[in-house]
Amino acid sequence: MTGGVVITGIGLAIPPGVGAAGVGARALQGQSGIGPLRRLGSGGHACTAAGEVPPFDLDATLRLPKNAKFMSRSVECAVLAAGEAVAAAGGFGGVDPRRIGIYTGSGQTGLEPGEFFAALELAEAGDEGLTYRNLGGRAARLVDRYWSLRTLANAGLALLAAEFSARGPCSNYVQGDTASAQALGAGFFDVLEDRCEVALAGGYDCLLTPSVYLAYEREGLLSPSDPERAHRPFDRARDGLVLAEGAAFVVLERRARAEARGATVLAELLGVGFAQSVDERPSPTIAAGAARAAIRDAAGDLHPDMVIAHGIGTRDDDAREALMLADLGFDRTPVTAMKGFTGYLGAPTAIAELCIAILGARRRAVPPVARLEAPDEDCPLDLVAAAPRALEAEMPSLLALSWSWSGQCAALAARAVPE
Question: Most buried among 80, 261, 283, 328, by the most CB within 10 A?
Answer without folding.
Answer: 80
